[in-house]
Amino acid sequence: MKAKRTALCLPLAALLCLGGCTMSPRYARPEAPVPAVWPSGPAYQERSGNQADKEAADLPWQEVFVEEQLQKLIALALTNNRDLRIAALNIERSRAQYRIQRAELLPQIDATGTGSKQRIPETLSSTGQAETVHQYSVGLGVSAYELDLFGRVQSLKDQALEEYLATEQARRTVQISLVAEVATNYLTLAADRERLHLAQETLTAQQATHQLIKRRFELGVASELDLRQAQTRLDAARVDAARYATLVAQDENALNLVVGSPVPAELLPKALSETLTAVQDIAPGLPSEVLLRRPDVLAAENQLKGFSANIGAARAAFFPRITLVGSVGVGSNELSTLFTSGSGAWAFAPNIVLPIFDAGSRWASLQVAEVDRDIAVARYEKAIQTAFREVADALAQRGTIDEQLAAQQSLTEATAASYRLSQARYEKGVDSYLAVLDSQRSLYGAQQGLIATRLTRLVNLVTVYKVLGGGAVE
Asked: What are the boundaries of each domain within the chain?
């Protein structure tokens, strides 16, 4: 008896060992189709960031966005933003799907209890008389458990796992994008508020100038041309003041949306000149270290692994599938004798399906799985190429933005001096008011350009943080 039991256990153990195998192809990460170093040239200056000792992916966002108001806004957005909530819920759904698929590796055991009462008519009764039959049963059973001899279920479980991991990386992508979007909207609002303040100051000055020239015209000291020219500058200032007031309101609405709740007034920026150190610079590192750690690239790789696992499931479909159905319990025709001696019952019904002819369906399924894998490889390589281009563009702008800012600052100072000189010459009667207007226009444009260049520099730092894969946002 013991020998028979051993003889039965050995094949069963072998089947269980085979169940851990899969027919999926061995995964090898494709070579990155990008250069090993970042581009070089006049636009790419060698410059080390303040956080050169850490990689961007390991750098907490609090060390990049250092202004306290901005940090509070980002934290508020990470709590309330709806896109981030959707991403988190997608993870929960994907995790549940993975657990469902993983559960199929183990048999499902159900407890059952049934009771029936049936009247058999005289014409069907073995006794020739109508009778009532009672049946009661209680038991435990395994329903359609597949012996995963060729790794079909295991491959499907692996695919579900990679899909779950890809969803997690998608959530990280949303988080990094959210942090960057909050910072960009915050800085844009600061810039537009400063532009609005400049436009309002210019409007006030133009109103005073217009009133002065109007009095001079009434006294016959100034010409009508001077008055009309002053009126054009006044109207232009009114247009700008109204336009920037609209932009500020729209910026606040955009910030409320991305944060996910109304932003407290004390967290709103006043002017861009007060937030010039809100964002810290970071070092780019090497492409091989940076790009492969970006969450979108990691998600593409997870999807590639998932499609490779699907190939294993498609291959396993060519081989026999064995399913087991069994139950053990008690049964009786009387409820009172259901658990008495001799009421035991069991059933065992193994089932094997051997593919013979399916008109090429399985071969087509395997081909689809292989083509899906090849598409995933192309998408993975495209994700790396896109990431490389985004970083290269950000570094190109970073390499020249300081020079642009210095030139714009010098231009603003020179036009301010030119305006003062032209104003003095007009007041002494040496020059016409047209020269004053031209200097005013140049100064206003230079001041607005300086604000725009400062904003470009700060937004570029935000972009560098984003395209390098962000930092820890947990």
From this structure: 14-105+149-319+362-467, 109-147+321-354
